[in-house]
Design goal:
Rossmann fold, 3-stranded mixed sheet, alpha/beta
Length: 540
C-alpha cells in the first residue's frame, strides 16, 4: 500500500461553498472559434489564457432576469439578441448571505445580484460537429449559497479530457424556494417554490438547444453536483420535468432518500408566516405585489423559504417514493461520499459527557439510540464530539449515497459507488488564526472533509491551493478520467485505471480513493445497515 505525507496547508482559492436531440446552429465554416452562433444570437467568448486550445464562454444568460414580476416565477426563456454578445466575464452570484472569513467555506466578498441566471461553457472542440459528451455542474452550498464560477470549478482540465463542461448559477434561499398561496394561485401548474430547481431544468433546456454549437452532443449529457448540487441531481432524477434532458448522473455527497421535505400545504403556511414577519399579510395578488416590491436585502434576511418542497409539479411526490415506484429518470449513476464529512460541517458540535450524548441521541433517534451508541462505541471513546459528527455525517451523506446506488441497481440500471478517504491539505494560511482540529487518530487536519474532493474531480489540484502531493495529483488524474469515461460511455472503466466494479448490494463493493485507489467492500456496513432501519418508513 502506498503511503505519503499529508500536506497541511491550503490557500483560500480552494474554498468553496461547500437531453433529447436538438441543438443550435453551427457557426459559419468548419472551425470552432470564439464567435459562436446559438439559437438566441452570437456569443463572443475567448481562449483560455493559459491554454489556447480551450475556449471559454462566461456569463451566458440561459433565462430572463428573475426580477420584478419574474421574481418567484418559473424561469422565463431568454429572448434573442441582435449582434454579438460578449461572453468574457462571469456573471454575478445569486443573492446569498456572505460567509464569515473565519469559516472554512468562506466565499469572500462575493459580488451578488438578483439578475444571476447565467452559465459558463468550456470546450476544446475544434469543430462544432465533434459531438463531445457534455457535463453540467451544479454547485453546492445548502441551496442558500455558492456560485458556478468559483475558481475550483474551472472547466479547462475537463475540457482538455474531451468533454464540453457547463457550470451554472441558480436561485438560492428565499429567492429560490418561497412557496405562497398567491404564487400557487397565479401558477398554471397550481404550484409554487422550487424555483432554484426549475432553474436547473431551464439550464438543461438551454444545453439541449445550444450545446451542439460548442461541439457538444445534446444526446449525451451528464449532470453532476456536490452537496446541495448533488441533492439537485437526485431531485432531477426524480422529476418528470427533467425527462430526456440528461442521460447520466454523478452525485458527490448528497442524496434525496431520507425524505422529510415539506409538502405544498405546509410550505404555504411557512411562507405566509414569513411574509407576515415582513409586514405582508394575506394570500392574494395584493400581498404578492408587496412581496415583489421588497428590496433584495430584505428578502435575503427573511425566512421566505430555503429548500426543496414536494410541490406537486417539479416533484409530484417525495423523491424517495418516486424512486421506489420506479418512476424516476432511469439513468446510470456514479455516487459517493467522503470519510470525514462532518469534521467541517458540524465543527460547532459541543463536546458532551457520555450521558449527555446518550440523551441527545435518544431524543433524535428514539429506540435506535442504544444501537447507535454500541455501533459508534470506538468513536465515543475517542471523543463524544467526534462520535456525534460521525453519526450525523454517516446518516446524511454516506448512507444516502449507498441508498442511491441501491435504488438505481434495483431498478436494473448501472451504479458505481465510491468512498473518498484521501485527506486534502488543510486550511492554515488562509485562516491563520484558526488552527486545524486535532483528529482523534492523532493526525492534524480535517481528514477527508465535506467538499474536499472538488479540486480532484475538476482536475484543479494544480490550479487552486498549495502543498498538494504528487499522490493528490495522481488521484485527480484518475478521478477525472473515471468521470470523463463515464460521461462518454456510461462506464467509468478504461485501461490504465484500477477496475471499478458495478455496484451490487450483494457484494457491496466501492472504489476507494485514498492511500491507494482500490476496490473495498462493505464500507461501514453495520452502521449503514443500522441507518436502513432508522430511515425505514413508508415513502409518501
Amino acid at each position: 500500500m502506498r503511503t505519503h505525507q499529508i500536506a497541511v496547508v491550503l490557500c483560500g482559492a480552494l474554498v468553496v461553498s461547500a437531453c433529447g436531440a436538438g441543438g443550435g446552429g453551427e457557426p459559419a465554416g468548419d472551425s470552432l472559434g470564439p464567435g459562436v452562433e446559438t439559437s438566441l444570437g452570437t456569443l463572443e467568448g475567448e481562449r483560455v489564457a493559459e491554454d489556447d486550445g480551450v475556449l471559454v464562454f462566461r456569463g451566458v444568460p440561459y433565462a430572463e432576469p428573475p426580477v420584478g414580476n419574474n421574481r418567484w416565477r418559473a424561469p422565463v426563456a431568454k429572448a434573442s439578441w441582435e449582434g454579438a454578445r460578449p461572453a468574457t466575464t462571469f456573471g454575478p452570484a445569486c443573492w446569498q448571505r456572505l460567509t464569515p472569513e473565519s469559516s472554512i467555506y468562506t466565499r469572500g466578498d462575493l459580488g451578488r445580484d438578483e439578475d444571476c441566471l447565467t452559465l459558463n461553457v468550456w470546450t476544446a472542440a475544434e469543430r462544432a460537429a465533434e459531438s463531445r459528451p457534455v457535463m453540467v455542474w451544479f454547485h453546492g452550498g445548502g441551496h442558500t449559497g455558492g456560485w458556478g464560477s468559483a475558481r475550483i470549478f474551472d472547466g479547462t482540465a475537463l475540457a482538455n479530457k474531451g468533454v464540453v463542461l457547463v457550470t451554472i448559477n441558480y436561485r438560492l434561499g428565499p429567492f429560490g424556494f418561497l412557496a405562497h398561496p398567491a404564487l400557487t394561485a397565479e401558477s398554471a401548474h397550481d404550484s409554487s417554490g422550487n424555483y432554484g430547481l426549475l432553474d436547473k431544468v431551464a439550464a438543461l433546456e438551454w444545453v439541449r438547444d445550444n450545446i451542439a454549437a460548442f461541439g457538444g452532443d445534446p444526446g449525451n449529457v451528464t449532470i453532476f453536483g456536490q452537496s446541495a448540487g448533488s441533492w439537485s441531481v437526485c431531485y432531477l432524477m426524480a422529476s418528470p420535468l427533467a425527462a430526456g434532458l440528461f442521460h447520466k448522473a454523478i452525485g458527490h455527497s448528497g442524496g434525496c432518500f431520507r425524505g422529510g421535505r415539506p409538502g405544498l400545504s405546509s410550505a404555504h403556511e411557512a411562507g405566509l408566516a414569513a411574509a407576515a414577519e415582513l409586514g405582508v399579510e394575506g394570500d392574494d395578488a395584493e400581498a404578492l405585489t408587496a412581496l415583489r416590491a421588497l428590496d433584495a436585502e430584505t428578502v435575503l434576511d427573511s425566512d421566505l423559504g430555503s429548500g426543496a418542497i414536494v410541490d406537486g409539479w417539479f416533484m409530484p411526490r417525495s423523491a424517495r417514493a418516486i424512486f421506489e415506484a420506479g418512476e424516476h429518470n432511469d439513468v446510470p449513476v456514479i455516487v459517493g461520499a467522503l470519510a470525514n464529512e462532518g469534521t467541517t460541517l458540524y465543527a460547532n458540535m459541543p463536546e458532551r459527557t457520555g450521558p449527555e450524548l446518550a440523551s441527545v441521541l435518544r431524543e433524535q433517534y428514539g429506540d435506535h439510540a442504544d444501537a447507535l451508541l454500541a455501533a459508534y462505541e470506538p468513536e465515543v471513546e475517542k471523543s463524544t464530539k467526534w462520535a456525534a459528527q460521525a453519526i450525523q455525517a454517516d446518516r446524511s451523506f454516506v448512507w444516502e449515497m449507498r441508498a442511491w446506488a441501491r435504488a438505481v441497481e434495483s431498478s436494473g440500471n448501472d451504479a458505481w459507488l465510491y468512498f473518498f478517504s484521501q485527506a486534502p491539505p488543510v486550511f492554515r494560511i488562509y485562516v491563520p488564526e484558526r488552527a486545524a482540529i486535532d483528529m482523534p487518530d492523532g493526525s492534524d487536519g480535517y481528514g477527508a472533509y465535506h467538499s474536499g474532493d472538488l479540486a480532484y474531480a475538476f482536475g484543479n489540484t494544480k490550479l487552486v491551493g498549495i502543498d498538494w502531493t504528487e499522490w493528490d495529483h495522481e488521484i485527480s488524474r484518475a478521478m477525472t478520467q473515471y468521470w470523463v469515461n463515464f460521461a462518454s460511455t456510461g462506464n467509468p472503466n478504461d485501461e490504465g485505471l484500477a477496475t471499478w466494479p458495478r455496484y451490487e448490494a450483494a457484494t457491496d463493493e466501492w472504489l476507494e480513493f485514498g492511500a491507494d485507489i482500490k476496490t473495498t467492500r462493505e464500507v461501514r456496513k453495520d452502521k449503514l445497515d443500522l441507518f436502513d432501519r432508522v430511515n425505514a418508513r413508508p415513502a409518501s
